[in-house]
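#data-curation
PF: Archiving a pair of folding outputs for the training set. Convention for this channel: one message per protein, sequence first, structure tokens after, nothing in between. First:
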Amino acid sequence: IYVFHGTDGDDWDKEGKQTIDEIKKILNYASRVGVSVVEHSYVGSKQTEVEKYLKTSGILNKYSNLIKLDVMGEDADDTRIIQGIKRLIS
């Protein structure tokens, strides 16, 4: 099972507690979890909430063989989107 999630990176749960807990459950049965974040221009050079808590939680490193993160700008074209999908499944 491959689970993919796409988001703009905004989240009312700034620490991602519920999200991280659910991802950990999914990692028990999924072959891969991929998270795509499409950043809006208003984010600027800062990270989105989702990026921050995924990185801070350590889940990306601890389960690096099961979960991948790809971040792209809102102006991403089809080529970049396809490249992102390839990153998530590699």
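PF: Second:
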Amino acid sequence: QLLPIATEQLQWMPHVNPKLHMPLIKFIYWSIRQLDTVIQHATMRSTMRRLGEDIFKGIVSKGNPHSSSEQSTESKSKSTAFFKSSCMSLRFLSTLIVLKTVTQVDYLAQAFDSLRIDLKTDEGKALFLEYQCVPVVLSHLKVSSRGLLSSALDGLLQMTMESGSLQPFLEACSNESFFQTCSVLLRSSKLDIPVLEKLCVLLQKLSRIKSNKKMFELFGLHQMFQELHRTINPDHTFLCINLNSILLNLGLLRSSSLASSLST
């Protein structure tokens, strides 16, 4: 019930102190995340789409209707940027809202591009963890979203770079939801090699965590990787290296076998 009101409040943002922008955007984000477990009616979906579009495009106001005509003239065409804000924390959170609310592929592609760039920084990685972003990105890891799948994985791959955020990120991915999503992707015959490589990099990092072995087994990933290892074209060197490493970490490949396969 509060989300439509918050959406209306966005229209006033050009006329309020910029310090108030972040609290409103943060409230909207966590409200949307709470709706993940709720069946959304058509009216709510419409509100969400409008919200996402406003966040993406920014708000342009033609003047404050509660001010005098003289003040209104002065404040004409004030604007507030959210997704395109120069403030990283506001931009980052706005990007997540866009990813959660809009359906237009071009908007989503720009959002993932913005996310990938911000995640190259330590601040961006910290924000990713603070706002518990794994489920947000995970919802876009679908074979049916082929145009966005690679972009979504690019964002996750930025989080696998060596940093203080790496271990907390891997822990955030170490759950049934993440592994089930990966399992569905790997069972698809439509994955191209570059996407498969990115997915294997992620899973190679996760295979280092011993407790994740049960996750690989639960969703049959260990068998899929064994089959891939047996059938993959050895010319795909990078993919082969990651497959070997995953199987080695899972105790399904001896180090001597790894050495011989890399030397051939």
